[in-house]
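Example with several molecule types.
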Amino acid sequence: MKTDLTVNGEARQVEHESRTTLLDALRDHLDLTGTKKGCDHGQCGACTVLVNGRRVNSCLSLAAMHDGDEITTIEGLGEPGALNTLQEAFVNKDGYQCGYCTPGQIMSATAMLEEARDGAPSHVSETLTGSVPLTDAEIAERMSGNLCRCSAYPFIREAIAMSAEKKS
Amino acid sequence: MTETFRMDKAQARLLDETGQGVIGTPMDRPDGPQKVSGRARYAADGTPEGTAHGVLVRATITKGKVAAIHADSISDLPGVIGVVSGPEFIRNPAQGMANAAPVQPGTRVDYHGQPIALVVGESFEAARDGALRLKVDFEAEAGADVDPDTASEVETGDPSAVGDWDSAFDGAAFKVDREFTTAAQVAAAMEPHAAIAEWQGDKLLLRSSLQMLRFNKNEIADSLGIPAENVQILAPFVGGGFGSKLGIGPDAVAAAQAARELGRPVRVVMPRQAVFDSILRRTETTQRVRFAADADGKLRAVGHDDRVSNLWEEGFAEPTSSCSQFLYGADALRFQQSLARNHRTPTGSVRAPGEAVGMLTFEAALDELAEQLDIDPVELRLKNLPDTHPMTGQAFSSRGLAECLRRGAEEFGWSARGKPGARREGDWFIGVGMASAGRPNMLIQASARVRLEAGGATVETDMTDIGTGTYAIFAQIAGEMLGLSADRVTVRLGDTDLPGASGSGGSFGASSSGSAVFLAARKIRAKLAEAMGCDADELTLQDGIARGGNREMAISDLVQSEIVEEAQIEAGKTAESHFSAGYGAHFVEVAVHAWTGEVRVRRMLGIMDIGRVLNEKTARSQAVGGMVWGLGAALTEEISHDPRTGHIVTRDLANYHVASHADVPAQMEVSFLDNRDDEANPMQSRGVGELGISGAGAAVFNAIHNACGVRLYDFPATPDKVIAGLEALGL
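Resulting structure tokens for the full complex:
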């Protein structure tokens, strides 16, 4: 079957089996291997991409469900020599070690910052309405779907906070 | 043939004399931009033209044999190419530094989940479908031992002991004698084990996620029955290893065998559940820790016995008491290990084998002794630091444990510690705990080549960077030695066609392989000195300028075309005369919920002595990573086995809980002593990757006790155990 996607701003058509996940379509059909497979069960977050601006575990979503959708992967944010603010902050704060969960952390953080800016509450928010101050506890709660076995967590969160500060 | 440098005596501290000023700095990783932009390519990223996809089929019995594999049961499935199996298949990954094939069981099945065949398809989806549907006949044998507690075959070693243990223990006024249990754990690297195998004639090109390529090359060659020179392995990026990728895995052997039979490249990626089932795990342990002391806190006897498990024909036994044998002195010490054989997923090295579980119990029992003696736990440790290795009599190389303990107590605010249960904030009991850290330091044979050209230098070795910072550190070592900024050094790693390094394991990678880089660069310095007409001692290299013998020249003008030097290092006499180890002290604050038993770590501080720090930023990340592993071991990480089959029940990342963002506080602080280990290697550095775990979980346990008075002896401290402890205290 064929699915039309807009990936990182570019129109792409993928020919795939009905059972192909969005993750495998990106990795194996479009050679966008920056998005990683860590568990294939939506438990680790390494495969996080943006679908129409919202973060999604691409391993839990079939490619066929995304006809006409806009997908943003890590390759769409910035490249060596022209990294975006968040990517630069990860390098500066050593917000990774092996680097395997990193694309998922960065994609997840990208959407998470938008969610927080839009006032979406989390489990640890003081209030369900009104603005959300982006404390470390807020970032930790909102990023807990992204595992990092190297355990760079404090530095990942410092990088996210640093990038949020720079942008505001 | 490159001459081998043996570490027979302490070397001059050259890195303190060089002037570039890049060694030790918190430099960003040069490979960082590739990692944060998704450009870093790991084992399964990108496939050669015509690649077929393989999915492993695994045993659904515990013990017995594979009677028949019915390939025809899936031959009609669209996209399925075929089924591959055979005597080349390995039962489980090779143990670290095995350098030869692991057990190849043929049709025999030794544990539930053992890989037995590979289904290959045109697509991953087809192969997965085929693997799920393949009909296999097993002949199961009943009555397989799957529980180490009731195992019928137990190998008990002779005790290693000094002093008259019985009289030292019996005669002391204060004693602790406790039995502990620790749960089995897994490495759970984020990148699953994966391989892409491609044959060019009789030569195998293997891309695989591996830690120790020099050994892995021989392991896969031996598994396939081909000469090692016909194998090239590439692993430029490795998505975490933690010991689980020390040896060649079933994915690589199956991919290579299938690619050979089919005449096309084959990719095999292990699903997460297969990684849990079929990759070496950390053993569960039962431990008995005994301390005896005088009223003044002087230790009279130290005992640490342990029982671990493994599958038959595996040589590995978790060295549980490794640290207990040298941290503290006593009149008598005694250590004894038993190994129970069983048909569970076999055990092997998982980050800090030995200390990771041994220090949990040892340092928790010492905390109990301190309470009994009414002596501050920091003070008790300081009182019992030995002058020489208590078991071997070796001199210690530099040993900063006392300073770590004192500095940690000061920086943490340890003196404010109250009695158990004294501090409460709402529904939370608040408490603090501490523990020592230790990890033996090793020098493993390693080679590296350095090229100096007019434009800069290149470092070449088959060493891996598994997140440890090798790319950064080697650029810093070569840059420091050759008077170049680190951005003028290119580091090439992870290719077996390059000189063979130590590999990443046992925290010895940076120091061992880094020393080979250091020595190769030192040889280039000698050549440059010769060209300058001065002694090597007089030569200074900084920012591309060479100075010596009253002359000053651009290094680029001294290099005709290029200077290439290779060096090899191995351990020598200092490894016998001196005992080298990393040391540290952990301090932790926890909150224990009075009603739910939930434990939250609020802050951790680690003071570490790792000799010379090569990169302050990557070292800190390693240490904090280890401390988080300690947190996980103390609170959540637990493999459960089905009591009927031995099969792992908690076989994914939802059921096996590694620490997540929400478990780890922002306040995870680490600082390093400015120390040098002259006997360790020519750079005076030591390993850091495993030191952070050692003792960290014990500090969490000790803090739980200080918070609410509950002492637990079964790791991890899940809420059910904490609640039972609180109820027993009437809380």
